[in-house]
Amino acid sequence: MSRYPKNMAVSASRSREKLGAQLYDLAFTFEPTDGDGAELAASDHGSNVATTAAQSNEGTLALSATNVETVRIRMNGFQDDIGELISIDPDTITIPIALEQTGWEIINTKGKVDTANNNANFHQGKYKLIVWRRFTDTNNWFMSDYSMQKEYQIWWNREPVQFFQDKDSNTMTAVYLGYYRVGVTWDDWRYLYGNLV
Question: Structural domain tally of the chain?
Fold first, then answer.
């Protein structure tokens, strides 16, 4: 029985991890009521500038070396609320475990990926690779500017993880409780480009 209370800490850690991954799992479907009202990864992020069209940080490209470069170029075209190009460095690729081998090859192969050419691989060592086992989709992947991600992706620890124990002296029954409150959201979409494959 003594193992069960300890497993509550494992369960709390697991559920917090799932909540963090949910931000990405819902990136293409959850429309907030604030901000620009579009999903985190959307094709219709509005602009405050009449001459600037809606911007997109959503694609449908499968993970490959060619498509990583396509997304990097697209992200470097992101504009701010007054229509100016932002300073962005797409340096992180976040993927599910099913794409780990492909992702690793893209950033670690010395020569051109999946070709007989002896050209140097432009992507070698250029990106940080994050493999997240909690993703529910096995094909979707994301590119981000890691420093901007840390700034615009928000995690609130409203109540830290706490554990309690109580024992009924009449029945000698022990009760173990665990409790925490957290929240996760984003402040700006421009740190990320998502591919709904």
Answer: 1
